[in-house]
Fold these 3 entries.
Entry 1:
Amino acid sequence: MVIRSWRRVLAVIIVFVVAVGFRRSTTHERCQQLLVGNSSESEGNQSAQRAAFVYVASACMAMMHEAMHAALAAPDGGPDAVFGAAMIAHHQGAIDMAQTELRYGHDQQLRRLAQEIIIMQEQEIRVMRRATSQRASSRTAHALQEP
């Protein structure tokens, strides 16, 4: 009985890490590639800069929504795990959007705000990752203790 519970908890953790964590880092990397790939051709031309911003921001937002939906659709994990995974994806999307503003925006107040968003959202992601990993560790320890 203990082994079966332990295996179930381990399966939940693996599904969570693979389906959500890996998927999120992949979408974030794709967004970062868009930022780098659209960097120089729009310099100096406001219309081209706007088009590049909209293209990158739209793609990053679509990737964020994809990662959030993947978190909600994960077959295992309780409400806390699903909430954490979806919110991590949402916060990473805010970071990607702020980085897009830093790449294309010119307003100093908005650029400062974007920098603050990056710092705050990264801190909140660390808190959520820590909380969800502690819950997973707690569930694993509890499953190992079951008779």
Note: The chain has one domain: 2-145.
Entry 2:
Amino acid sequence: MSKKLNAGAMHEPFLLRLTLVFVDSSVLHGADKMTVAYATLGPALSPGWVTSEKRIWGKYGLDVELVYLGGGARVVPALLGGVNTSQVLLEKNRDMFIRFLKGYLEGIRFMIGNKEESLKAFTKYLKNSDPAVNNFLYDDITTRVEKDLRPNPESVRLMLDLIALDHPQAQRVSDKDFWDLSLLDEIQRSGFVQRLYRK
């Protein structure tokens, strides 16, 4: 039986950029199975593509499948209708989400340091074989991506204001309604990110 975790939809910060995460409690080949669905093909999602293609999540005992929903407009009503991260779900699966985030953080590190390998993922997921376009997108996102995944409150508010143009109820949503930084805080305290960039 699968459970649903809403992680929001935003700019660079992963926790708000991935739209829906379905957590399957089953174990496949010794790895916890997760299916991550996303609604847009923006380059801000590229660390996830690279992490998946390089099988980095596997190092953390996870079998992660990325699924493209095809159209962000479909998920906006769900976001505004109250589908949100369940604290119970988070605490029950806390170790798995920690491992998921660690894999994603390592994917960011790999992407920043391995352009040619990362561009293969851009080509695949964007379905664009134009090297000039993919190079531009790569150079753009690697200068903006947050290495520690910390969301920028101003960027979150801007996106909510843009959503409010079509969905006025977004004005009532706080910029902190769709994230829980306790996982990132725990990872930060462990020194994990610092060790990644010392390699």
Note: DSSP finds ten helices and four strands in the chain.
Entry 3:
Amino acid sequence: MAVERQRKRQRVPTVWRVPDEMWNRIAVLFPIEEFLPSGGRRWLPPRRVLDGVLYVLRTGCQWKAVPREFGAGSTVHRRFQRWVDAGCFAAIWQRLLQHYDLDVGLDWRWQSADASLHKAPLGGEKNRPESHRPREERDQAPSSHRRRRDSHQRCPHCGEPA
């Protein structure tokens, strides 16, 4: 039974770059100034930068580690932030959902969401109240695999006081 389901299900290739058909549908959603360079350094086309954003999302790498073929990591990140602020990605999501609904059809009565929430190690909100616990050297948390030795303990290897 499971083998039959796997045969019926087609594998969708991983998207590393924006396909032409998708780009034609979403290009109009980017700010117009993205297509009008105004001097200075050579302007990167938005499609190339979007490919860089996809690379970061697929690999999980840092922005600085984006390959140069997509532009400088700082440029890709800056443009990504502009697009988020302008609502480009929400508009892209909505446009592509509409096209998918027309092509394949979506059952809008049923939806599902999946999330995973974890406490960030040493993380927290900015400008939070200061903790009253003593800090470790250079604001580092104590390592979980090391413990402090009391002065009366002896080294297990040589027997000298620790």
Note: The radius of gyration is 25 Å.
